[in-house]
Amino acid sequence: MNYLTKPCFILILLFFSQAAISKDYIVEMIFFANINSGADSVHLSNQRVVPTLGDSISLNQGAQSNGFIPLTSDIFTLSGKADSLNKSGKYRVLKHMAWLQPGLAREDAIAIRIHAGKNYKDEFKERSFADADFDDRRIPTNHPVNELDGTVKVVLGRFLHVYTDLVYRKVFNLSSGDALGRSRVLADFPIKTHRKMRSSTLHYIDHPYLGILVEIRPAN
């Protein structure tokens, strides 16, 4: 390669690198609870787990302005998996969702807000701020205390990367009551993970109380 063609070659590389980064993907995820976790004897911590919501966006509120589009169930390819989970008697699907998003590098990636499952705010009124940042005074006192809450972020590099910053909340029945005389407590379990993934491949994120099926495929 001579001196005159090298700058042109570099520009071509930069162009195709940017084109690869800007590819659109369909992200499909199933969040499901493990009904028979058999871990009611674990030591329960009273510490609240608060996911970092930061600049996360909701698919139902202005996500399209950032290139994120929620998809309807006719686009799902994992519906059979969700049906099998529900019919197993061992698992309960909390949320099955899919969206279209641009392939964004780490510095530009945007987290998607996830909230699903039961709402515990009526039974555990003291937890009305538990699923939001303590410093965020905009959250109303009747804010839902979801069974599952937090964020999921997809990052495109040499591989696809999925980051979860989630909390799963589970009710435990106490045989003798706790120090406050309560017979039922709501415990928080963090699910903060990072997984490297290949496109068009089904991946599984495991936790004693929660499972996540993830498939990310290029959009046509």
Low-confidence stretches: 8-21, 130-135
Summed up, the helix count is 2
Rg calc: 21 Å
Q: What is the string of SSEs from the N terminus onward?
A: HEEHEEEEEEE
Number of E-state strands: 9
Tell me the strand order in the biggest sheet. Answer: 2-3-1-9-8
Span between termini: 36 Å
User: Approximately what portion of the residues adopt beta-strand conformation?
Assistant: 35-45%
Overall outline: globular
The major pleated sheet works out as: 5 strands, antiparallel
Total individual domains: 1
Can you walk me through this structure?
The chain starts with 5 loop residues before the first helix and ends with a strand. It contains two helices and nine strands; from the N terminus they run H-E-E-H-E-E-E-E-E-E-E. It has a five-stranded antiparallel β-sheet, covered by helices on one side. The chain has one domain. It is globular, with a radius of gyration of 21 Å. About 9% of the residues have low confidence. Strand 5 and strand 6 form a beta hairpin. The chain has 220 residues and is mainly beta.
Summarize the structure.
Mean pLDDT is 83; it is low at 8-21 and 130-135. This protein is mainly beta and 220 residues long. The chain has one domain (24-218).
